[in-house]
Amino acid sequence: MESNRNGITKPSKVAIVGGGLVGSLCACFLAKRGLNVELYEYRNDIRKTELVKGRSINLALSNRGRAALRAVGLESHMVREYGIPMAGRMIHKLNGNLQELLYDPRTNKNLYSVGRKYLNEVLLTAAEKYDNVKLFFNHKLINANLQDGKLVFRQMETDQTIELNFDLIIGADGAFSAIRKHMMKMPLFDFSQTYIEHGYMELCIPPDSEGKFQMESNYLHIWPRGEFMMIALPNQDHSWTVTMFMPFAKFAMLDTTEKLMDFFQKNFPDAIPLIGEDRIIKDFFNATALPLVSIKCKPYHVGNRAIIIGDAAHAMVPFYGQGMNAGMEDCLLLDQLLEEYNMNISKVLPEFTRRRHEDAHAICDLAMYNYIEMRDLVNRFTYIIRKKFDDFLFWAFPMYWVPLYNSVSFSTMRYSLCIKNRQWQDKVLKQTSIIVVLFALFFGFLYSILF
Ligand SMILES: Cc1cc2nc3c(=O)[nH]c(=O)nc-3n(C[C@H](O)[C@H](O)[C@H](O)COP(=O)(O)OP(=O)(O)OC[C@H]3O[C@@H](n4cnc5c(N)ncnc54)[C@H](O)[C@@H]3O)c2cc1C
After folding, report:
1. What is the pLDDT of residue 112?
2. How many angstroms separate the alpha carbon of residue 287 from the centre of ligand 1?
């Protein structure tokens, strides 16, 4: 650790554990600031491997992720050249009818469907371009002493154990973070994890015989069915990644071809010709439903030595499409704090916890809420009316009435403020409707007396 005249501690050697979307982006940010970064990733270099089975293939990139990518010069490529815009939800009704619900009819803002593997590759390549970044693949973190800055890795190919010391350790090693496990041994570390009773499974709608999309490509398609749902995001090769979200018990009940096809026939009849019967059967029985976990913890740092970001700090269920976006926003916040505190890591790390934990907990809660909205509420009349109302007020008063979804996905409003903003809107609408009802009763009464 370098100390200048003012006693400011600037880390000279930084380790990032985890080379996923957040770790590799963080390496770019720190390298830009001139820090020496070593990134350690458990897996092989994904640029040299086939698609990793079981990891969601495409992701919705929104405003927060875009802002972070912009800061390292990658937004334009990911959004304008590569990403597929999704202007809204396309609801598939049980009777086969489609209903379009635009995210932002006022300014036509889009989410962008991006391939996880491709984005990770772009980020790793961007990080590697900096002379002060070194990437180490096949290195699994197996032990750590965070207070002393010590990390122990196993080189997976040689089975060699490597012990190293760093000034700053950044844990970007995902929902089951090894760094966080070491933090949990420390006093005053709060931690909670919740598995939802629903799992997910990925299927695929291939391109048509001419290699084109089989559905309208600029939407996130949803088949909301109350207790469960299916969604589809477009891929660059004109296929669709279809994800079924369902209680594990329901997945388990579909244990024969007949039961599975009967289930599709009843619930997703219009998806059968799109995916193809043989493919539904093959993909469903070859896959396993995977669990979804939500993790909250605090603090995110240990002294002036270690910090966790991304899913390691706040894994969430995927229904707001914010996990990656929030992790990328972590990188942006960390970078802003390094600027604000002149790289003084003793100030930056506690400030990161202070500024971030409320927002991270808020987006974990919002993600849980959005599952109910996506699989059930979108089908309801009251939801449609409220959305139209919100869209109108947003159009009329764009500075004052930003609907919840827009504030989360198309702004950088703090997540905790997005919730408070929505609570305020609910209160205003409730009070307005009470006043309207009272006026109606009053004039009705007057009318009955006078006429
Ligand atoms: C079905 C599904 C759909 C999703 N859709 C979206 C979406 O549309 N939009 C969105 O924003 N988010 C989405 N997410 C969330 C998103 O995938 C995560 O938030 C994001 O991947 C988190 O990135 P990360 O880098 O923090 O963690 P990860 O992507 O999990 O990366 C962690 C890395 O650390 C490595 N690692 C782990 N342990 C060790 C160790 N001991 N030593 C060394 N390396 C280690 C791993 O190999 C991995 O490469 C979705 C998630 C799921 C499950």
Report:
1. 97
2. 19
Distance in Å, CA 422 to ligand 1 centroid: 28
Summarize pLDDT for 95-111 with one digit per residue, the tens. 999 999 999 888 889 99
Distance between CA atoms of 234 and 90, rounded to whole angstroms? Answer: 12
Residue 295 confidence (pLDDT) above 70: yes
pLDDT tier for residue 263 given thresholds of 50, 70 and 90 = very high
Domain-terminating residue out of 291, 308, 340: 291
* Alpha carbon distances (Å) from 1 to 39, 194, 306, 350: 18, 38, 13, 17
Ligand 1 near 313 CB (within 6 A):
no
Query: In angstroms, rounded to a whole number, what is the distance separating the alpha carbons of residues 127 and 26?
Result: 9
**What is the model's pLDDT at position 31?**
97
Domain ranges, residue 427: 381-450
Q: Are residues 439 and 429 part of one domain? A: yes
321 close to ligand 1 (CB < 6 Angstrom): yes
Atom 1 in ligand 1: residue holding the nearest Cα: 56
At residue 52, the pLDDT reads 52
Ligand 1 geometric centre to CA of 113 (Å): 16
Same domain, 203 and 341: no
- Average pLDDT on 369-393 reads 85
Q: Of 291, 307, 337, which one is at a domain's C-terminal end?
A: 291
Question: What helix, strand, coil percent values describe the chain, rounded to 5?
Answer: 45, 25, 30
Q: Is the CB of 241 under 6 A from ligand 1?
A: no
Over residues 22-33, mean pLDDT:
98
Minimum CA distance residue for ligand 1 atom 52? 318
- Yes or no: say if 303 and 348 are a contact pair by the CB < 8 Å rule: no
**How much is the CA Rg of the chain, to the nearest whole Å?**
24
Amino acid (one-letter) located at 220:
L
Residue 55 has pLDDT above 70, yes or no: no
Q: Is 323's C-beta closer than 6 angstroms to any atom of ligand 1?
A: yes
